[in-house]
Amino acid sequence: MLQQADLRDVTRDDTSLRRFLHGLPGVDQVGAESRAALLATRSIKTTAKAWALDIAIRMVDLTTLEGADTPGKVRALCAKARRPDPSDPSAPSVAAVCVYPDLVATAVEAVHGSPVAVASVATAFPSGRASLPTKLHDVKDAVAAGADEIDMVIDRGAFLAGRYLQVFEEIVATKEACGPAHLKVILETGELATLDNARRASWLALLAGGDFVKTSTGKVTPSATPPVALVLLEAVRDFAGATGERRGVKLAGGIRTAKQAVRFLVMVNEVAGEHWLDPSLFRFGASSLLNDLLLQRHKTHTGAYDGPDYVTVE
Amino acid sequence: MAPRFEYAPAPESRDIARLKPSYQIFVDGAFRDGSGESIKTINPADETPLAEVSEAGPSDVDDAVDSARRAFDGVWGRLPGRERGKYLFRIARAIQERARELAVLESLDNGKPIRESRDVDIPLAAAHFFYYAGWADKLSHAGFGAGPRPVGVAGQVIPWNFPLLMASWKLAPALACGNTVVLKPAETTPLSALVLAEILAAADLPPGVVNVLAGGPAIGAALVAHEGLDKVAFTGSTEVGRTIQRTLAGTGRRLTLELGGKAANIVFDDAPIDQAVEGIVNGIFFNQGQVCCAGSRLLVQESVADEIVTALQRRLSTLRVGDPLDKNTDVGAINSAAQLAKIRELSQSGEQEGARRWSPDCDLPDRGYWFAPTIFTDVSPANRIAREEIFGPVLSVLTFRTPAEAVEKANNTPYGLSAGVWTEKGSRILWMAQRLRAGVVWANTFNRFDPTAPFGGYKESGFGREGGRHGLEAYLDV
Q1: With a threshold of 0.90, does the pTM exceed it?
Q2: For chain A, which domains are there?
Q3: Which CATH class is domain B264-443?
Q4: Are A35 and B327 an interchain contact pair (Cβ–Cβ within 8 Å)?
Q5: CATH code of domain B14-259+458-475
Q6: What share of chain A is helix, strand, coil (3-state, %, to 5)?
């Protein structure tokens, strides 16, 4: 495995970085898919399911990223984030709300006094097609408005063209612009296409200081597929093995059901390890997932399934 | 310390198996008590009796072979392939319809995890019948000339590691080609073959086309030596295979043997490491390692050996060993006390000969036949654990430096059933596959089975192929 000393040198120049990323073990697509499918056969019932649903709620970044977002919509989302189930005070609040930078101030005000953090997408989300100064300005705006976490996008064009050092330096600059805010690095694995690229991009983001690697913007399909999640979890596991530092993983896009979420928690548990079963190291970026988690939670507690009219729609 | 995410027990209900208090042999289209002893078949996971099984005696072997001969001469041997195919399709569908019952029954009788019986054994058993059902009316196009004839009456003796699947591997091609059969399942796992006999009866298969005799080694020996047979097919140990071959020498009866193995799973330094680790685990811990083609010798390139062993140990720590009926169990029980004793004896020899033994922390149940997943490192090619088939969840790790050395070490065994090659380099896969003397070479995967793919061995792993178009040859007079 990699030694810490190796890691200091790999980002010295483009050649070293390329050599390092291309020297990572390959990912066999067929094997990764069958491993993900095998993990999906775990049967999580009764007490295990109740525990998993609660921690899944605590891992949600409740997200609205629409052109039509308004302050009213964001305030409603924040109320939901603070108290997801008005009928049951034992239901935990979610990890964060995730909004566009211009709505950060509204969100900060609305979650004030609660444990819910405010995350904001930045760096010309979702395409990332802007100059670096523009992207950094976007980040600083969001941080100045009070964002606790920044979800940046990498320059997929530069990555696919093999300009790894450029991608690396943009992440480093963004991390610096974040100041105290946590940085999640969106790889948009659907555009990177291969699992080899997902592994390389994960390592690139981790080497550049990203606190989290995140699969997708949610605007591109495919997004957080099980094999991609597997590769990201292996990357943070191996990075921790090499450096002793635990970094997080966020899955976003297409996760709508509690069943999917529980399967991903099994994967986190068995691939990265149980340390990652914590909102500080694992998140779901989602909007409709929360309501299904609440419905399933209610069913687990009462034995009866309520149906969609019994959870709130924001 | 308790794990944070403790999976609650998720047991499949044993009632689904619809266990009966007693089971009978199936001769000439009817169930009846055998003239042998009545034995209890037990659940290897807790040593409790499951059911009483009436075993066949020598007179039952005669009756079964006579019945099969009558069925061959009178009905089955003359039936058009199209009509035989209909029966096989019907049997395949019935296996699917009773899949859950068969899966639970198999796990109870054999000790294998329900995940494997449910997702591998039973679906593959149905798939073999479906596949050969399709061949039944197309034998003229199988490459054996126009209108190839069946061989006649086949005696088939199968092992305990995949009871229903091995029965299907043997029966489906035999029936598709127009042969009739006397099948003997293993003494420790007779139940699923006897339930299969119920399925055959319900499918209105003419009496005598398939006869199923429960019994021990003596009945197996009586069957394979029977003069009324035209063909013998055996899957099991190399030792018994040798005896059978001696028995049949000079009789003119045909023989196919699928015997033991000591497969090399070869990992190069440019392998997809995470997937290779999965393949190693699947190669040796699938079905508790009680697989003739198990990847029991890991040959790993020395430059990545430490990395692979560390990753393997981490992965083994997540394997869940225990109740075979729990849907989250990865490794179940060893099939019998005798097999467990053999695994223990060979593992002890590994320690005595200087290899380093490692197992993850896992609580094994107090009752039943259990053996923790085990890895031996610092294994020398001369050690018994590197040469003899253990047939258990025990992996021996050896290293190599160059591709040529990997081939030499992989082939340095009396066996030759299977091998695995792990590398991202396509040309190396082809180079290795040309040189490995094994009937199956898996590339970047292991223990993957499909009815369309021929399976069988070199050297002391036997001869003849099962599965695919090649599998027809053993049951056609060509």
Answers
A1: yes
A2: 47-308 (3.20.20.70)
A3: alpha beta
A4: no
A5: 3.40.605.10
A6: 55, 10, 35
